[in-house]
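Re: the 148-residue chain
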Amino acid sequence: MMGKTKKRMLAGVVALAALVTTVSGANSLVWPMLMDGKIEDRVATIFTYQNQVSAALAQSIVEAEADELAVLDALYAVEEQLNEACAPLQEAGRRHIDGETLGGLLQIAVFNTMEECEAKTDEVAYYVRLARGNSAETFARLFAATLD
């Protein structure tokens, strides 16, 4: 269990670091291919929002581990779903932060998944609010209903 705690703490630090760099760098994630400023701004907004929610989720996981809450498995499942839905956007962000160029296929993947990523981020933000409240049972019940 100690390994998971360290992993979660590292994830929180990484998410926080990504969040700090997001504001200055997110606008060029899809710029080479998509010259429309509205799309560029939307992708940057989704990227920033997703990183903020990921950081809050990582913190909720750390808190749930420390308190040995029953919602821990649900939080891990939500984290996996968010990572899957936003994988192209996160990969583009990582490459941009590392100074790498973005290939056309990755840019297309970002464009094609940005709405799914935004919707999943909204859903995860809701679950994080529930998990941080006094309603762990409600959170578990609502999350279980989404898996049906």
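The helical segments are 2-25, 37-67, 72-85, 87-97, 104-132, 136-147.
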